[in-house]
Amino acid sequence: MQTSPDRHEYPAHWEADVVLRDGGTARIRPITPDDADRLVSFYEKVSDESKYYRFFAPYPRLSAKDVHRFTHHDYVDRVGLAATIGGEFIATVRYDRVGADGRPASGPSDEAEVAFLVQDAHQGRGVASALLEHIAAVARERGIRRFSAEVLPANTKMIKVFTDAGYTQKRSFEDGVVRLELDLEPTDRSLAVQRAREQRAEARSVRRLLAPGSVAVVGVGRAPGGVGRSILDNIRNGGFTGRLHAVNRAFDEDCEEIDGVPAHRSVRDIGEPVDLAVVAVPADRVPEVVTECGEHGVRGLVVISAGYAESGPEGRERQRALVRHARAYGMRLLGPNTFGVINTSPDVRLNASLAPEMPRPGRIGLFAQSGAIGIALLSRLHRRGGGVTGVTGVSTFVSAGNRADVSGNDVIQFWYDDPDTDVALMYLESIGNPRKFVRLARRTAAVKPLVVVQGSGTTPQGHAVRGTRLPRATVAALLRQVGVICVDTITELVDTGLLLARQPLPPGPRVAILGNSESLGVLTYDRCLAEGLRPQPPQDLTTEASPEDFRRALCRALADETTDAVVVTAIPAVGEGAAGDAALAEALRSAAETVPHKPVLVVHVEFGGLAGALSAAASTGPQQTRPGRPGAAPRTEGAPPSGADAEPAGKPRSGPPPRTGTGPEEITEPGNGQPSGTAPEGPRGAGARLITAYPAAERAVRALAEAVRYAQWRREAADPGKVPEYEDIDEKGAAALIDGLLARGQGLTLGMEETCELLGRYGIHVHRALPAPSPEAAVEAARTLGYPVALKATAPHLRHRADLGGVRLDLADEEQLRRTYAELTDLFGEPEQLRPVVQAMAPRGVDTLVRAVIDPAAGAVLSFGLAGAASQLLDDMAHRLIPVTEREAVSMIRSIRTAPLLFGWRGSEPVDTPALQELLLRVSRLVDDHPEVVAVTLEPVVVAPRGLSVLGATVRLAPPPARDDLGPRTLPVY
Q: pTM of the entire structure?
């Protein structure tokens, strides 16, 4: 029952870019009357079988009436969506609202018939599944709660689309047709299905960039030098296993190759498919290149070119247009202004970056939003000999540049199930979608370490992201809650990553310390205490200790059941030279292998060749084969090349020079390092035991402490606890109260009576505070409440500031109350300025603060700390994402630095922390159940030895911020 085609304006907010199952992209948008020709062209490309499945009869072409019906919608009762690539339809979906009799209807009917049609060439790419998510979201917005569909039994693909979606559904069979009914209310299963599809699709989209079968470098200069030519050389010299092409429209027509690489004047001239295009042309030429790539079927772009959002408003618009242009052709884009990508897998060996050498293969994934930081990370992990040595190298490297499309979230999706990456290191200057990042980080950290260093918190010019109001320290605390290892510097990022890459996770915080330097041992002991570890007294082996003494001592320490990790402190013996260094390194390696499930670290003072000896520690050890490969040749990754590839004696190696004690080294396999181009290390635990060595105790202990905390998180993540149910919570009553209050306006801070009523619905009881605008009113309030009472000034500049004298306690009678009232007004001004209140005295205890806020970007956050200026000054607060579990509530209380005051510090009586935990959980439930509650502050909360008292409370209501993590899958639009 369509009325007018423009009954509702075009719903532009339904437009979305999505990643399909194979990693390509498509645009989903509403169908309009202008799409008539596109619809006809699309239908002509659909096979007769697919048409039969759609219409249950041969239907070779659409009539003019059909075209009109399928392109004219009111966007309420009749809606059609199309998936497009390159501006052309590849699939359509539509719903028609129907009544109980199955005939067309309008509201309040909440059922609609739905039907799909997917072009045969695009079937199997997950297009229908993506369209179902979006048409279901549109239907819910328009008041439709149920879809029905009739499908021929032979159309198994479409039946699978419905049955696999995860919605609650009914299925019946009559008159030769399968009838399906879907309840469109999202379920845990539908959300899990959606996120699993999201992970697979986004991981494959990144894989397209990192593992292409063919690469075209666009913008290759005719002469050596320049960005394009350098990247071409880097790809070729890195040993890329696929096909490589050089493109420049300035090439002569008879130019067939550049340095042995086929040369072309345009991507269109390449006579085979191209998976990846690396674009290094001026920004004004990039649109032309993108069009050529899209028309040729290129699957992904790495845009090195600068001149975009980092250059100002004009560049920002140019960047937005670039993203729209690339996505229109189904391509994902890395950059612009990116340093490039690297994949060291022997099956790929891609160095499509400005790094002149392929990094050493390994099992650490690197992501950097800054090219400069990316260079620093690659350099530190690439160095060998006396620096960052051994077999711990890079699996993949991604520089996001301006992060216009592909972001850190996409790369985490790829790393999650990447078999070549054991540890992920990330340098983040901004987090564009914090809710999604937290969700992905939690899942990834459960299977492999994710180490992050945050930038200054200032969003770079090229990163157009939604800002968060949360302080940087709060964001870091929330990331730690989901298992992210947050460090402060690039040095700590590398230190921690190397330890996690090749040492087992410590089973606990108990640390044994042994070595031949008493002073170094004491320094290590002190740092362990500072990091919250539980060190044993250092064992001094004296400077006379031999390598055998070290071996025996390390074996004993590792065998001790009260030890979870061992730190070895070593200074080389004077006069022994390289032979002594090698013997000590081998002794430590052989001892560490006796107990492989406990980590061993070395703190050393480098004299000459000790670092080299540490690199060669396994040279005298027994050869080992990789697990699962019987009879495989021994690993010789560290051995110097031989034969024709060997370097002449005295000839310096290319690449970064060896370091001199400024970074961690590793006890590794034969030789003094490995030139790039050799095989990568095996999976975690394969091959010889590697021991990371550090030039300073604080660096070793900090890395160990991060590993201990991460291991503890992994153990707890297996059983995160539950969000408790409380029988006295009146969720429906609170919802009705909130709806009534919000009817007054869009946002408001509740009065005291309303605040007490709302909190009371969740079992949170606030001590009454009666206004005292005059001495007589104060006396009357005290009579009502009963002595003793407190007199408080609630003016903003005095509220909760007992240190300023605005709070007077234990007033036992009317005389004291009147005298105190006069003192306050003499000190701070008239009652109108002070806003004094009278409140009954609560039992003595520890003053605390509980706060909950909803951040538009990160979501709902619960915070806890002790009340008072000192805690605020030191930022001694604990933060957790809502909803909070029982276990997280316990950890919140214990995690603040001032927590000992709650547990009987210096002989004081411990307070009732179980009551405090329950209060935290009730506030969490309130905010989680009612997103309209955008802010709650309880201050002070006096926690006594038995029970607690909430003496002050404020609540703010507002329409909840829009959430972009609960709807259908979409790519972000900046």
A: 0.87
